[in-house]
Amino acid sequence: MFNIVRFIGCSHSAVVCLLAFYLGGVHLAAQTAPAPPPEEKSQTSISPPVGQGPQKNTHPTFRRWGLGGIFTYTPNPFNLVKGGTIVTTANTLSSKSEARPLGGGLAAYFYLTSTLSLNLDFIYRRTGYDDSNVLSNASTTSYYSRTRGNYFDFPLLARYHSNRYHLLRSSVFVEGGGTARFVEQITTSTTVDTTVNSALVSTCCTEVPDRPAHRLVYGPTVGFGLRVPRDEIGVQIIPEIRYTRWLDNTFSAAPTISNRNQAEVLLSITF
Questions:
Q1: Contact 229, 170 (CB under 8 A)
Q2: Domain ranges of the chain
Q3: How far apart, in whole angstroms, are the C-alpha atoms of residue 68 and residue 184?
Q4: Which of 88, 131, 198, 241 is buried most deeply by CB count within 10 Å?
Q5: Phi and psi dihedrals of 57, rounded to 5?
Q6: Is residue 186 within 8 Å of residue 203, measured between CB atoms?
Q7: Rounded Cα distance, 47 and 116, in Å
């Protein structure tokens, strides 16, 4: 600053001196003024790219497949075997069903979509009947037979689950498909009673299995039921009602004949 004043020469003019002093003060003030504090970087949140919202769980809310047990009950009007009595001049034939109303097995399902699934079951049932043949002759001979066998049913059904209709907080479903039935392990025990002159002679026992009319039969099956929501450990209960119309008779020797109309109540417990 002082060098500038000496260079200009203050003796020439007071105005020039004042101007020199003003410019020197501005220059000194510019050199001694404190620097402004550094700007703080603002913290901004990083937003997702345009067109992309928050990440969503794309996994389905239903389980694709499952296994479990199935239990069935067949009411008496739809008993597996129908009996009866036939009376002729030569003999009297009688038959009584001994088929058990309860059955059980395994159930499996696989979801194709959230509303359509395929279901394959394996159901075991115990069937049987007792029959008699009393001959009307002088000796009065009677035949009493006890027949037992096992049914193995394989229903394959497509099931549609409605997301619109609910009952008891459970979605309603309808199903349809076919069922194959195979009968095996048939045993028959026959006792012969003969009365001659009021004396009874009993002969036991002849083990000749009865032959079924058809060892393998098929039938269309329809039904409906409820898909109860899973509990906290993943167990699901599925009650349903099915009807099957068998195309052939497994047993067909009058008066013993298989029931071709089958209605049943089922309960599945799957995981």
A1: yes
A2: 2-28, 65-270
A3: 24
A4: 131
A5: -80, 110
A6: no
A7: 39
Most confident of 4-18, 129-143, 176-190, 199-213: 176-190
Residue 63 corresponds to which tokens in the numbers above?
């389980």
* Dist. CA 127–CA 249, nearest whole Å: 13
Q: What residue has token string 């088929």?
A: 99
**Residue 224, amino acid:** F
Instruction: Residue 132: name the closest of 221, 192, 88 by CA.
Output: 192
- 259 close to 245: Cβ distance less than 8 angstroms: no
Asked whether 165 and 172 are in contact (CB, 8 A), the reply is yes
Q: Is 62:238 a contact under the CB 8 Å cutoff?
A: no
Q: If you search the block for the tokens 């058990």, which residue do you land on?
A: 100
Across-strand partners of 138?
none
Name the residue with tokens 């359509």: 116
DSSP code string of 104-134: EEEEEEEESSSSEEEEEEEEEEEEEEEEEEE
Amino acid at 31: Q
Percentage of the chain surpassing pLDDT 90?
49
Q: What is the CATH class of 65-270?
A: mainly beta
Sign of CA pseudo-dihedral 10, 14, 18, 19: negative
Helix or strand (DSSP H, E) at 5: helix 2-8
Whether the pTM exceeds 0.70: the reply is: yes
Give the span between the Cα atoms of 99 and 181, in whole angstroms. 15
Q: Exposed, middle or buried: residue 203 (CB in 10 Å: 0-12, 13-18, 19+)? A: exposed
